[in-house]
Please model this.
Amino acid sequence: MAVVDSASLIYLTKSSCKEILVKTYSQVSITPAVYREVVVGGKRYPDSGVVEKNVKEGRIRVENPSKILSVYPNNLGAGEMEALSLAFEKKAMLITDDVHAIRAALLHGVHVRTSETVLIEAYIRGVISRLEDLKDKLTALIKHKAVRPDVYVLITTLLKVLEEERGEG
Model:
């Protein structure tokens, strides 16, 4: 199971990678705050309709955490706070690209993925079957999301190693 925050859901949807998210995890959930941020608040964007349709079809669930975690410092938005709390409660993977949410999750023992690592995990699990397709998906993602230079170097290094292992490089 994976719980996704607003930014990651938007990045993956804008880069046409949201379906990969749904195929990689047995269940994908968002919280009411994430729904409000992405679907209600994002009505003027076509991507909000994609997420709304997935919720109506049951491909993405909207779930409330029973309790909100105490996080210090409290510098998370409502969507990140609810998503972290739900992931903690359900012992689920938290998918976030927010550095503060990542730190808080790690402090609470919650496993974390970013948008990029979701795609890499999908490749490792066979959801993305070709290395070239992984590269294309990562390129599409990077067009919508600022990626730190060290993360970009790490990803390109990993791709090079994968190419060499498969005799493609």
User: Anything to note?
Assistant: DSSP finds nine helices and five strands in the chain. The chain has a mean pLDDT of 93. The first strand starts at residue 2 and ends at 4. The domain at 1-169 is CATH 3.40.50.1010 (Rossmann fold).
